[in-house]
């Protein structure tokens, strides 16, 4: 049956499935090219996993970085991505990301007054020691935004995973300083300014926000200005093809019934990964990563991937994820460990009471090592001075850990390392030897086992008041152990696509009319992670690429 002969409940030029950064960027790009565009979202909130994220955007040589004097040569960017990604993804896809990335950010900045960013000063690339890597970093983030500008859509923005006090809003640039509030005058000044900003926001009755929610809010404001509708509570059911096999629309559920949407120029799948699909986790992810300790949106159950596979689409990288060490709080929240792994007076050990990698390494790298070696269970150890100096798991320096954390066994504490070893059921002599060996490295200022602190990335969240920002002895009881899990920010595997974001079959043939981006697609970063925002940046870029291709097709 031809597309014109099929029965439709609604017709547009371009249909976007998913309201994260990739989908919303694609919708803006499609609308800018004159396409009648619609965004549908499974959840009752918009923003997807992006709204739960740090909101960083890793797109080298973008206009903001150029204005900051941090422009790149194309050769440097390609050299770095070759070193980090290797040949795990098609070369043309890397080229497309490198070449179209700056155009994507330029488009966003010039097409909407809402799309405003700042450089995350000094937030190192994740592998700055590699050729082309940058210790000063390439990550940008959205400027704080007043959510009240959203009007009625303010209440529909996906809530943050963790609540913050009224008026308080913290950027990534602030966060790295505030971690050292007991240690440096710069951090104390940042804390003062943050407090002043909070008071000002309350007095002026503003609801300011930052990070991933700010990015989504800015994209939503741009979409509202552009007149692009967004339908919530409208999950994708399947894709519709014509007699040639081209995608011409989709079936969604809307208002409790099947709703057929024609898409004359194509469908962009940007509906996230399969983090909350337990069957897919068990089928694809490695041992140690099959259980769900994800910080992604709970609605992400692989719908876009499944819909594409039913049409014969190929998938790749299904055994990998944007891994993140995390811990499961008694209230059911999976909380990530980003900065904590770099603080001095701490180590991470496995079931044998031994360290197994550089604790301060990029989080995907860390969990890859954790999974590959079968290091389970895993414990984050720190001493009383670390507890009183640095935030740990969202608990401020000197603040007591919640009683429920202790009662549930999430946190174990003891006056000696030997007693702590007994409580977490690791060999006593092995843990004592591990701590003694590490303390020797800390005193010498060099981790001879795993080179902790050698990379600029390691030191970004370290303590700048110390000679070696990530190294100091564990010698002040009581000692603590926090149970660490192999969590994730989302899965990496998904639909295979080309440099135009077109979804491909197993034989490499294009499925006409079907595009994919974000965690619905196989990550352009392959098995690694180039820098903070290397999930969000490529999602936005390939959303932009796919929309423009659809408009020109």
What's a quick, concise take on this entry?
With 553 residues, the chain is α+β, with helices and mostly antiparallel strands.
Any key phrases for this structure?
about 550 residues, alpha+beta, six-stranded antiparallel beta sheet
Residue share in β-strands: 15-25%
Total of DSSP H or I helical runs spanning 4+ residues: 16
Cα Rg: 24 Å
Topology, number of strands: 21
How many strands, which pairing sense, and closed or not: the largest β-sheet?
Answer: 8 strands, mixed
Note the overall shape.
globular
Oligomer state equals single chain
Bin the helical content. Answer: 25-40%
CA distance, first residue to last residue:
22 Å
**Helix/strand/pairing category:** alpha+beta
Low-pLDDT stretches are none
- What is the residue-averaged pLDDT? 97
Describe this structure in words.
The protein is built from 16 helices and 21 strands. It has helices at residues 21-32, 63-67, 74-85, 91-111, 172-178, 185-203, 211-226, 278-284, 303-309, 363-372, 384-389, 403-407, 417-424, 428-444, 456-460, 536-552; strands at 10-17, 37-40, 57-58, 117-119, 139-142, 145-146, 208-209, 230-231, 236-241, 247-254, 257-269, 315-316, 321-328, 334-336, 346-349, 378-382, 411-414, 479-491, 494-495, 502-504, 510-516. A hairpin with a 2-residue loop joins strand 10 (247-254) and strand 11. It starts with 9 loop residues before the first strand and ends with a helix. The mean pLDDT is 97.
């Amino acid at each position: 049956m031809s597309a014109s002969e099929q029965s439709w409940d609604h017709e547009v030029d371009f249909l976007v499935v998913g309201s994260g950064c990739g989908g919303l960027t694609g919708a803006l790009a499609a609308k800018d090219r004159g396409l009648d565009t619609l965004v549908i979202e499974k959840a009752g909130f918009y923003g997807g996993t992006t709204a739960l994220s740090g909101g960083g955007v890793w797109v080298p040589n973008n206009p903001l970085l150029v204005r900051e004097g941090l422009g790149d040569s194309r050769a440097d960017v390609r050299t770095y991505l070759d070193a980090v990604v290797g040949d795990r993804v098609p070369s043309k896809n890397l080229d497309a990301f490198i070449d179209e990335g700056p155009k994507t950010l330029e488009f966003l900045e010039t097409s909407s007054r809402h799309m405003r960013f700042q450089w995350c000063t000094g937030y190192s690339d994740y592998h700055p020691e590699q050729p082309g890597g940058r210790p000063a970093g390439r990550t940008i983030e959205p400027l704080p935004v007043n959510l009240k500008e959203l009007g009625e859509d303010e209440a529909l923005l996906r809530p943050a995973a963790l609540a913050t006090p009224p008026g308080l809003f913290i950027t990534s640039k602030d966060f790295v300083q505030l971690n050292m509030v007991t240690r440096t005058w710069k951090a104390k000044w940042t804390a003062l300014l943050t407090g002043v900003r909070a008071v000002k926001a309350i007095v002026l009755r503003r609801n300011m926000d930052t990070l991933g929610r700010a990015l989504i809010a800015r994209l939503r404001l741009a979409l509202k200005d552009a007149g692009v509708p967004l339908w919530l509570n409208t999950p994708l059911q399947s894709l519709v093809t014509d007699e040639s096999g081209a995608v011409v629309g989709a079936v969604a559920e809307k208002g409790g019934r099947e709703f057929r949407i024609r898409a004359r120029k194509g469908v962009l799948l940007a509906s996230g990964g399969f983090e909350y699909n337990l069957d897919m986790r068990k089928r694809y992810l490695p041992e140690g990563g099959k259980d769900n300790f994800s910080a992604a949106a709970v609605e992400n159950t692989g719908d876009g991937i499944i819909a594409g596979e039913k049409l014969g689409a190929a998938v790749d990288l299904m055994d990998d994820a944007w891994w993140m060490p995390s811990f499961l709080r008694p209230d059911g929240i999976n909380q990530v460990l980003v900065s904590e792994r770099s603080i001095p007076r701490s180590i991470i050990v496995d079931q044998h009471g031994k360290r197994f990698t550089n604790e301060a390494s990029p989080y995907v790298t860390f969990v890859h090592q954790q999974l590959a070696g079968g290091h389970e269970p895993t414990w984050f150890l720190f001493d009383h001075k670390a507890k009183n100096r640095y935030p740990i798991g969202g608990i401020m320096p000197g603040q007591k850990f919640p009683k429920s954390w202790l009662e549930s066994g999430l946190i174990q504490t003891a006056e000696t390392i030997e007693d702590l070893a007994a409580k977490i059921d690791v060999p006593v002599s092995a843990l004592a030897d591990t701590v003694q060996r590490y303390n020797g490295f800390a005193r010498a200022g060099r981790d001879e086992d795993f080179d902790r602190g050698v990379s600029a990335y390691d030191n970004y969240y370290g303590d700048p008041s110390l000679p070696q920002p990530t190294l100091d002895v564990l010698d002040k009881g009581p000692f603590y152990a926090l149970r660490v899990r192999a969590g994730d920010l989302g899965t990496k595997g998904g639909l295979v696509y080309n440099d135009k974001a077109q979804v491909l079959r197993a034989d490499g043939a294009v499925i006409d009319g079907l595009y994919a981006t974000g965690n619905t697609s196989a990550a352009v970063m392959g098995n690694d992670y180039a820098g903070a925002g290397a999930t969000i940046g490529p999602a936005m870029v390939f959303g932009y690429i796919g929309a423009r291709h659809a408009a020109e097709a």
